[in-house]
Amino acid sequence: MTDLHVLTLDPESGPAPTATVVAIHGLGASAEDLVGVADALALPGVRWVFPQGWMPVVHAFGQGWAWFEMPPRHESGIRESRRRLHGLLDELAASGRAPERTVVCGFSQGGVLTLDAGLRYPRRLAGLAPLSGFLFDPERLPAELAPAQAGTPVFLAHGTFDDVVPVDGSRVAERALREAGVPVELHEYPMGHQIIEPELRDLGRFLVRVLALDAWGRGDRL
């Protein structure tokens, strides 16, 4: 069994899920934080999996969860989160959720983990979609990029007014990924540290493409 608390959401109607999106929350949130993204996109045939961070943190609104310290002064937290996410992906694969039909996405700290763990996962993934994140230790990417992920498409999205994780985080990631030969697209939006409808539309198109979905649900009317 995975050593992460996990929330799973299947589509309300339509065919049984044949694809998986693992959605990773940001600092101080919980497994439920990105359920609204799944509801807004309503992608048919997609099972959403929401892992919860393993580090408890206390903030102004109560207790939440984290994946590593911010700023990441020590690599140990990121390494442990990487191990746990790889374990979850392995467990999903063992249950029939093929990695090549799985996209990993995440917001903020979850976007950092999406890139860090996703690019090092040894089995090919369908895609990676970090939102408002950054690439931790980009100089290590050429040596540590898993051969299986060399052709995995990456969707980067970021707000140009983000004062929590500046947009340069995604711009640096884009350059590093291009230099490593990873197919990447960067989308910038006039927003802060948030997720907005135009970003959701672009993310939905990316998921439909890389997961080879036949149709889109309510998300095509966002």
Write the layout of secondary structure elements.
Elements: E1 6-9, E2 19-24, H1 35-41, E3 46-51, E4 55-59, E5 62-66, H2 75-94, E6 102-107, H3 109-118, E7 127-131, H4 141-144, E8 154-159, H5 168-179, E9 184-189, H6 197-210
Parallel strand pairs: 2-3, 2-6, 6-7, 7-8, 8-9
Antiparallel strand pairs: 1-3, 4-5
Descriptive account of the structure:
This protein has helices spanning 35-41, 75-94, 109-118, 141-144, 168-179, 197-210; strands spanning 6-9, 19-24, 46-51, 55-59, 62-66, 102-107, 127-131, 154-159, 184-189. It has 222 residues and is α/β, with parallel strands linked by helices. The chain has a 7-stranded mixed beta sheet with strand order 1-3-2-6-7-8-9, sandwiched between helices. Strands 4-5 form a two-stranded antiparallel sheet. The longest helix has 20 residues, at 75-94. The model has no long low-confidence stretch (mean pLDDT 92).
For the largest sheet, list the strands in their spatial order: 1-3-2-6-7-8-9
Structural class: alpha/beta
Q: Could you give a short account of the major beta sheet?
A: 7 strands, mixed
Strand and helix order: EEHEEEHEHEHEHEH
Give unreliable regions as ranges: none
Continuous helix count: 6
Helix residue percentage: 25-40%
Q: Output the radius of gyration.
A: 16 Å
The count of β-strands is 9
